[in-house]
Amino acid sequence: MQTAPREIVRRCLRFERPPRMPREMWALPWAYEHLKDYIDEINRRFPSDFGAPANVYRPSPRVRGDQYGIGTYTDEWGCVFTGIQKGVIGEVRNPQLQDIEDWKSVVPPYETLPENTARARDQVNRSCAASPLFIRAGCCPRPWERYQFLRGTENAMIDMMTLDRPVLELLRVIHEFYLRELEFWVRTDVDAISFMDDWGSQRQLLIPPGIWREVFKPMYRDYCDLAHSSGKFVFMHSDGHITEIYPDLIEIGVDALNSQLFCMDIAELARIAKGKITFWGEIDRQHVMPSPDPMAGREAVRRVAAHLYDPAGGIIAQFEITPGSNGAVAVAIFEEWERVEEEARLGSGSSGGPAQVS
Predict the structure, then answer these.
(1) Rounded CA gap, 219 and 150, in Å?
(2) What's the CATH code of the domain at 297?
(3) What are 243-278's pLDDT values in tens digits?
(4) What mean pLDDT comes out for the span 140-156?
(5) Does some domain include residue 77?
């Protein structure tokens, strides 16, 4: 009898030797338009072990436009994004909060949260029961990125260096909304909650680590504590070079972390984090995924496997297909992970298989 995807992921997160690695592919709408045949092949040969619950959010009257379209899109917080490429989310060019002293004008989208929580919880629970997949909650707190959307990146960077009272008040408003949102989800039957914030540049954190630990680490600890108190796993995504905060994220209880491994020293990450957290992907989006040669994907898998693979668990085969990605590389990545696992089962090579692709 085959092990259900939900159990495969759980055993991976607990380092309980899953029968195979969990897998997950992310793809922007661009990919479904330009690489549909490859997407279909991957979904057929390497179906994801992750799923989503029933959508119980209420529509917000503030939302306008197409999130992935060309032109402007207004989200549920009232932030206006400008898109210049179809299938990709745009960016905020004119932040709504030009003066931080106007922080009280920010109104979180409480109107989107379920009005009848008991009925919404029942909908979510029924969708979880009907699926064999590992279900992550349908929310994604992102306090730092939300702050940037409201203030603009340049203003946000300056604000983090001053931490004046209005700055902290705005962060409190954002954080309180996300806590309210998470309080609903942890009382459902989802397997995990997730949150995100891109914290790295190509070479280092965007702000001094001390400020990150003072301001944002306590927020993330709140999310982790809330989830774990209800028996939920915690997933986090953060792009860029974030080696400095890996130990902090382990300390507060993040169970699985999606980060740009190839921006960092993978051997160093193995030293500080292997066996303590699950590496939720990924494979390099900047150079490997767009490569014209599928061998680049296979070699990237071997590089990750040599340092991070362990049959006991702690690693998820994950990558994202973004504009410019090569579908053949994506297929090769999942194929190579299967080879790594097969070699480990046969006892050949090291725990991550041979260092070179044959």
Answers:
(1) 18
(2) 3.20.20.210
(3) 999 999 999 999 999 999 999 999 999 999 999 999
(4) 97
(5) no
